[in-house]
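User: For a reading group we're discussing how well predicted structures match intuition. Take YwdI family protein. Before you show the prediction, I'll give you the sequence so everyone sees exactly what went in.
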Amino acid sequence: MVPIERILEEMERQMCEARNASGEAQRREALAAVRSLADVALGDRPVSRMPEVKPVPLSVPHATMPNTQGTAQAAPVVPPRQEEDGANGHSIFDF
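Assistant: Thanks. Here is the predicted 3D structure of YwdI family protein, as structure tokens, for the group to look at:
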């Protein structure tokens, strides 16, 4: 394991490089190195920035009672199945 003092020294060196960088790409590279060094100093795994979310149990829908008041419900209209060559029944591709 790398001593924390060595990591901090390298972070300071990378910060100096970021301050003295002549271009945006060099600055971003030095700052990315600082970020990586901070991750190493804090531990092997990156810190999660997402809040912990607890699951909410879902309610099961209750079965509905059939209509018993004497009113008839219309049955869905289903076109007859095509039996031609190349037809495969109730398909959106049947013409």
